[in-house]
Amino acid sequence: VMGIVADGMGGKSGGRKAADQVILTARQLFERFSPEDESPAELLSQIVSESHLMIKLTAISAEEEPHSTVAGFVVTSDRCAHWIHSGDSR
Fold first, then answer.
1. What is the pLDDT of residues 58-81, one digit of tens each?
2. Hey, which residues does 68 pair with through a beta bridge?
3. Mind listing the pLDDT tens digit for each residue in 2-33?
4. DSSP calls for 23-70
5. Taking a C-beta distance cutoff of 8 angstroms, is the pair 57, 51 a contact?
6. In what side-by-side order are the strands of the sheet with 81-86?
7. pTM value surpassing 0.85
8. With contact defined as beta carbons under 8 Å apart, do 32 and 48 qualify?
9. Contact 79, 67 (CB under 8 A)
10. DSSP classification of residue 3
């Protein structure tokens, strides 16, 4: 199970785009996630890293200032919880 909360930063243009990008990236990476071969911590780290990259590319191409915060967790079948946050989402 994975849960993600993404929120565009107030006062910046493109916050909604940034939050949408986090959710899209998380969905795509989770669909390809293989718990037998990958660690949940690596998945969460990859979600944050790839989202950040895509948001930065959007800022360049759209001439906006998209920023987002993210909080996420993964609970594995053995009931271990892994979590991550970036920005003001705590």
1. 888 877 788 888 999 999 999 999
2. 8
3. 999 999 876 667 788 889 999 999 999 999 99
4. HHHHHHHHHH--TTTS-HHHHHHHHHHHHHHHHHHHHHHHTS---EEE
5. no
6. 2-8, 68-75, 81-86
7. yes
8. no
9. no
10. E
Please count the residues of the chain.
90
- Round to whole Å and give the CA distance between 49 and 51: 6
Question: The tokens of 34 are what?
Answer: 């293989």
Rounded to 10 degrees, the C-alpha dihedral 90/57/44/9 comes to: 10
What b-and-e string marks burial along 33-54, b requiring 16 or more CB atoms within 10 Å of the CB? beeeeeebeebbeebbebbbeb
User: What token pair was written down for 5?
Assistant: 């909360």
**Chain centre to alpha carbon of residue 77:** 21
Strand partners of residue 6: 70
